[in-house]
Amino acid sequence: MIREIVLENAIHAIFIPENLEIRQGVKFITDTKDEFQIGLIGRKEGERVPLHKHLGQRRVLSGTSECLYVREGICSVTIQSLDGKESIDILCHKGDFLLLLRGSHSVHFIQNTSLIEIKQGPFSALKDKELID
Q1: Is 126 helix (H, G, I), strand (E, B) or coil?
Q2: What is the pLDDT of residues 47-96, one digit of tens each?
Q3: Are residues 21 and 84 in contact, defined by beta-carbon separation less than 8 angstroms?
Q4: Which end of the chain is more exposed for a tag (fewer CB within 10 A), N or C?
Q5: CB of 18 within 8 A of CB of 94?
Q6: Domain 3-128 belongs to what architecture?
C-alpha cells in the first residue's frame, strides 16, 4: 500500500513498498503540481507505448525532490517538517521506493545497503544542500 507521509498538513514524502501490486493502466500518485512526478504503469504483454518525446519546457523549481530506491539492505529515513517541529522515521527494505518532496531528511543504514538516488538537476552540494546536524 502506498503511504503518504504528511507533516504540517502537507505531503512531505511518498513511500512505495516493494510488494505493491501495480494494476493495468497508468496512475500518477503525485499531484500534477508537484515538482517531481511518479507514475505507476501496468501493461500486458504485447502492448506498446508509441514512440514519443518530451517537449522542452522552462520550469521554475522551489526545491530539490529526491527519490531513493533500496536495491539491497535496510535503512531508516527520518523525514522532518519544514519548521523542524514534526518528524517521522520510515523503515525501507530491499525493493522499496521513497519520494522525498519537501522538508529535511537523514538516512541511517541498519544493514549494508545499496541505494539508487534520483534527484532533479543540475545539483551542487555546495549550493543546494544545508547540513542541519
Answers
A1: helix
A2: 999 999 999 988 888 888 899 999 999 999 999 998 989 999 999 999 99
A3: no
A4: C
A5: yes
A6: Sandwich (2.60)
Q: Taking a C-beta distance cutoff of 8 angstroms, is the pair 92, 77 a contact? A: yes
Instruction: Report yes or no: 13 and 101 within 8 Å, Cβ to Cβ.
Output: yes
SS3 annotation, 62-118:
CCCCEEEEEEECEEEEEEECCCCCCEEEEEEECCCEEEECCCEEEEEECCCCEEEEE
User: Cell match 535496510: residue?
Assistant: 74
pTM, two decimals, is: 0.89
**Contact in structure between 97 and 67 (CB atoms under 8 Å):** yes
- Amino acid identity, position 87: S
Give the separation between CA 117 and CA 97, rounded to whole angstroms.
Answer: 10
Are the beta carbons of 75 and 110 closer than 8 angstroms? yes
